[in-house]
Write a structure and sequence with these properties.
Number of domains: 2
CATH superfamily of the largest domain: D-amino Acid Aminotransferase, subunit A, domain 2
Shape: globular
CATH topology of the largest domain: D-amino Acid Aminotransferase, Chain A, domain 2
CATH class of the largest domain: Alpha Beta
Radius of gyration: 19 Å
Length: 279
């Protein structure tokens, strides 16, 4: 049996712990992080927690002294050991505000939930078959104060994932309210055209992905300039290669979006320089 941690205590999986009055349940009032552990070491932990604390400030949470990055790191490590997830594991850290309505909240301190699941041994390895994507257009991402956060009101991504499952795509691309490329239901996106690498700028409404940041920093040091800009569907169609990034799968190349097919020569080189020796 697996366990989870709720506000610092272990509970068996499927235990009911969240009351009906929680603002996180009522309004999606909170944040989450998805992290990857390898042999008990949490990858890019400092970057994940820095993004989380930035989001807490944006959402105007009040942080008590006992709630700290060190406390969360300790709890995550304890949970991995409790669940026997000694190899590859996915961790979900969910934070939410306490009880109350929109105008009669009780407090602004974060409650938290930590869950972990074992990952298959090939997680993060090069995906030689390539992904097949489609474009989800019914619900679009806004470009505002909340766009770059991983907040609990994730409905455009939920609907995009449902569409991907229905259409038998591996993932679905989301557009912003201007009709430009934003990201996918679970990843950031990069395009390669004539050996130049492009990705939607954060001002385009995409999640400020941890792996997105790592890839950009790595390529800029080579130096291979990554151009953060506005990208249209026409740019997607004209691209030579497309790849996705997230913290669980690292880099995955896209073989097709609709009828458009893509190669993977440069993407595989990028993957190899970053991850081939780590898996």
């Amino acid at each position: 049996m697996d366990y989870f941690i709720f506000n610092g205590k272990f509970y068996p999986e499927n235990t009911a712990v969240v009351g009906a009055g929680k603002r996180g349940l009522r309004f999606g009032d909170g944040l989450f992080e998805t992290l990857r552990a390898n042999q008990g070491e949490i990858e890019f932990l400092d970057e994940h927690l820095a993004r989380l604390w930035q989001g807490l400030a944006v959402l105007q949470f009040q942080i008590p002294k006992h709630f700290s990055p060190d406390k969360l790191q300790e709890d995550i490590g304890n949970l991995l050991r409790k669940n026997g997830h000694a190899n590859l594991a996915r961790i979900r850290l969910t934070l939410f505000r306490g009880d109350g309505g929109l105008y009669d909240d009780i407090n602004h301190t974060p409650g938290y939930l930590i869950q972990s699941w074992a990952l298959p041994n090939d997680s993060g390895k090069w995906n030689s078959n390539g992904l097949v994507l489609g474009i989800y257009e019914e619900a679009k991402k806004s470009c505002d104060l909340l766009s770059n956060l991983k907040h609990n009101n994730f409905l455009p991504y939920v609907l995009a994932a449902l569409q991907a499952k229905k259409q038998k795509w591996n993932d679905a691309l989301l557009l912003n309210t201007n009709g430009n490329i934003c990201d996918t239901s679970i990843a950031n996106i990069f395009l390669i055209k004539d050996e130049l690498i492009y990705t939607p700028a954060l001002t385009e409404g995409c999640i400020a992905g941890i792996m997105r940041k790592q890839v950009i920093n790595h390529l800029n040091q080579l130096p291979v300039n990554v151009i953060e800009t506005t990208l249209s569907i026409d740019d997607l169609v004209a691209a030579d290669e497309v790849f996705l990034t997230n913290s669980i799968y690292h880099i995955r190349w896209v073989q097709a979006v609709g009828d458009k097919k893509y190669g993977n020569q440069q993407t595989q080189k990028i993957y190899s320089t970053l991850f081939s020796t780590k898996n």
